[in-house]
Every structure is written in structure tokens, then in C-alpha cells.
Amino acid sequence: MSHPVASLERELTGPLLVRSAPVRTTALGEQVLPHARIAVSAARSVEQIAAEAAGAMTGTVRLAATPTVCQGLVPGLLRHWREDQPRITVRLFEGDSSEVSTWLEDGTADAAVLIDPPPGPGIQLTTDSYRALLPRNHPLAGEPRVDIRDLEDDPFLISPNGCEVRVRTIHRLAGLRFAPTHRVRDLATLISMVQAGIGVTVLSEVSRSLIPLTWSCCRWSPARHAASY
């Protein structure tokens, strides 16, 4: 992007960016940015009209999703879209739930995969369930179904970037106090801690692709605890 930005700066006879770490906009850049976004959006609209007139969809879609959804759900979506619309480019933006919602609202993203989205335009992609993730030597590791009450005496691990809101609800519905022993930001780290026997956790089914196939991952997912995407 350095060449077109430098060219625009020459035309405007002023710097648009402060080239530091991280890069930030100058006062002139802040004034230009809203108009630049409108211009880019208008150009994309013209390209889309031309593509529709030619009978083919082209362009770029900016898609936002959480890390868990990016790893568990998005790869299949991208494969489907590539087969169905090969001339559409999808750019993926990965962030936590609040960032994804903000990006969709302010136009940074054109579309987003939201967990339990508010009423509005969109489609339901899937309904997710929940599983207890236990160390292989846990007494309940071989059980086909585990109730959250069975884990009350275990050190409980949670990732704020995972499904904490849902897990809180699960505890509340069971009449249990939600008091995690450790909070771990990265979901992969959380899974490794369970593997090391530090504690147990509850994860959404969409997280299953991150879990080694040799692990015990016991389902305890009544329908009322499902999440919609």
C-alpha cells in the first residue's frame, strides 16, 4: 500500500500517515479517511453492478469471526463459497465477540458470524452444543454424558474469548456458582492445560477441531444450552 498512499500524499501535498509502530493517521489523514471509505465503497458498488450485468459476481467480502469460529466453522464455509462463487474473494478478520460485533456495526466487516445474534438481517448457519473436556485420567472420562454438577469439585478453567457467557448460563441453570480457577486468554493454551491435568472445562462443539482425536471429550449438551450462529 505504500506506493498508492505516497502518490495520494503528493497529490494532496501533505502526509496522511505517521510512519511509526504502529502506523497512525495524521490530522489530514483523519479528515480524508471518511471520504476515502465512501470512495472505495462506491467503486466496489460500481464493480458489483458491472459484474451483475455480466452475469457473474466478483469482488471482496470482509468476514469477521471469533478465533473458535474461524477454526471450527469458517474453513467449511470458505470451501463452499469458493466452489459456489469462485470470483468472490473473502478476507477474514479474527477478533473476540465484542470486536466482531463492532466491526460489523462500523462497516469494517461486510459480514460476521455471531453467536446468538440480535434480531435483524442474517441467516442461521448452525446450532452448536457443548461438551465437557476432561483429562484422559479423569474418573468421568469414559462416561458418554457428563452433567455440569459432576464437575463442581474440579478446578474449572475458562477462556474469556471462548463461551464464557454461555458457560455462566449453564452453571446458573444448574444452580451452581460460577467460580473458575484459571482464566486463559488463548483457547489452545486452555486445552493444553486440561491435557496436563490442571483442570476441566466446557467448550462448544465448534471447538472440537482443536482437540486431539485421542482425547476424551464427553457430551453433556441438552438442547436448552445450544448456541446459534
Shape: elongated
Unreliable residue runs: 220-226
Strand order of the largest sheet: 4-3-5
Return the structural class. Answer: alpha/beta
Instruction: Give the quaternary arrangement of the chains.
Output: single chain
Distance between the termini: 34 Å
Can you walk through the features of this model?
The chain is an alpha/beta fold and 229 residues long. Helix content is 37%, strand content 17%. The chain is built from seven helices and twelve strands. It has helices at 2-12, 27-53, 67-72, 74-84, 97-106, 164-173, 187-195, and strands at residues 17-18, 24-25, 59-65, 88-94, 111-112, 127-128, 130-133, 157-158, 182-183, 201-204, 217-219, 227-228. The strands form five sheets. A three-stranded parallel β-sheet has the order 4-3-5. A three-stranded antiparallel β-sheet has the order 10-7-11, covered by helices on one side. Helix 6 (164-173) links the parallel strand 8 (157-158) and strand 9 (182-183). Residues 220-226 have low confidence and may be disordered.
Keywords, separated by commas or semicolons:
elongated, 229 residues, 37% helix, three-stranded parallel sheet, three-stranded antiparallel sheet, 7 helices, alpha/beta, single chain
Entry summary:
The chain has 229 residues and is an alpha/beta fold.
Question: What order do the helices and strands come in, and which of them pair?
Answer:
Elements: H1 2-12, E1 17-18, E2 24-25, H2 27-53, E3 59-65, H3 67-72, H4 74-84, E4 88-94, H5 97-106, E5 111-112, E6 127-128, E7 130-133, E8 157-158, H6 164-173, E9 182-183, H7 187-195, E10 201-204, E11 217-219, E12 227-228
Parallel strand pairs: 3-4, 3-5, 8-9
Antiparallel strand pairs: 1-2, 6-12, 7-10, 7-11
